[in-house]
Design a protein that fits this description.
Elements (H helix, E strand, L loop, with lengths): L1 H27 L16 E6 L2 E2 L3 E3 L5 E2 L1 H13 L2 E6 L2 H10 L4 E7 L2 H4 L2 E3 L4 E9 L8 H5 L4 E4 L3 H10 L6 E4 L2 H10 L4 E5 H10 L6 E4 L5 E9 L3 H16 L2 H10 L2
Parallel strand pairs: 1-5, 1-6, 9-10, 9-11
Antiparallel strand pairs: 2-3, 3-4, 6-13, 7-13, 8-11, 8-12, 8-13
Length: 268
């Protein structure tokens, strides 16, 4: 009888131990990417997609790591909002399909807020203001839209708002518009004379000119181009993530962290 009780006790202890181990494994996996579709914000890893070819907002450093204003901004927001993020670098054209399909949860990559985009995705409150400008080769004189129309080739990045601006000026199918996949490729074409000018976001063009002072390129502000704002993007109807991001953005504006990051990349 004593022997039987001892065996029963051992079996019961082993069963309890196994249950405890299973609970521990489940809890530890709650912060892993696979759990990003359930649980509270603190237990989720939000998968952030960007196109790291848009310095100084998003770019790859010498170690092939994603850096930039947007990255520092999201890190500060994650700390303020007590949530976790992991970044992935994607082509610009694949970002929004990846968001829609659930492969990523957030797009943070200098995305201009437009009415057309708001129809299929949701944006946070604006976090940066820009306009479109024209990067002009040294030997070209461009001051107005009419001057721009007289050029033979204008470079844009496919799908960016510079592309949309060029379509309004030249028409959607004009052979004057040369489309490129990234800003670095586009600016290289301006350098090489493949295009005579390029249209892109003001902060990005200013960053390029600042880092290439000996090339003699000019930045032209065109009054016809409207002021634009960047926003962080979530899937249409994902109000929980949207509210979390807006709250975190509000916090880092209030505590001075936003201004600190902005000064790091753009000066005081």
């Amino acid at each position: 009888m004593l022997l039987n009780k001892w065996i029963v006790t051992l079996i019961s202890c082993a069963a309890l131990s196994a249950c405890g181990g299973q609970n521990s494994n489940t809890a530890s996996s709650a912060s892993a990417p696979a759990a990003s579709t359930a649980g509270s914000a603190t237990s989720k890893v939000f998968r952030v997609g960007t196109n790291a070819a848009f310095a100084p907002f998003d770019y790859l450093d010498e170690n092939n790591e994603i850096k930039g204003f947007d990255v520092d901004l999201m890190k500060a927001m994650a700390e303020a909002g007590n949530f976790k993020i992991e970044y992935s670098n994607k082509t610009w054209g694949s970002l929004f399909p990846a968001l829609k399909n659930g492969d990523i949860d957030i797009v943070a990559g200098a995305v201009t807020i437009t009415d057309e985009r708001k129809a299929s995705m949701d944006f946070t409150e604006p976090y940066y203001e820009i306009t479109q400008v024209v990067l002009v080769a040294p030997n070209k004189n461009v001051n107005t839209i009419d001057d721009l129309k007289n050029l033979q080739k204008i470079g844009v990045v496919t799908g960016n708002t510079g592309d949309l601006a060029a379509q309004k000026i030249f028409g959607a199918t004009s052979d004057k518009v040369a489309r490129f996949e990234t800003v670095p490729v586009m600016t290289k074409e301006v350098e090489n004379g493949g295009v005579e000018a390029a249209i892109s976001d003001s902060a990005v063009v200013e960053n390029y000119v600042k880092n290439n002072p000996n090339k003699g390129f000019k930045i032209i502000q065109v009054p016809d181009f409207q002021v634009e704002h960047y926003g962080i993007v979530v899937r249409k109807g994902d109000t929980e993530t949207l509210n979390m991001l807006n709250d975190a953005l509000k916090q880092i504006r209030a505590n001075g962290k936003y201004d600190e990051i902005k000064a790091k990349y753009f000066g005081a």
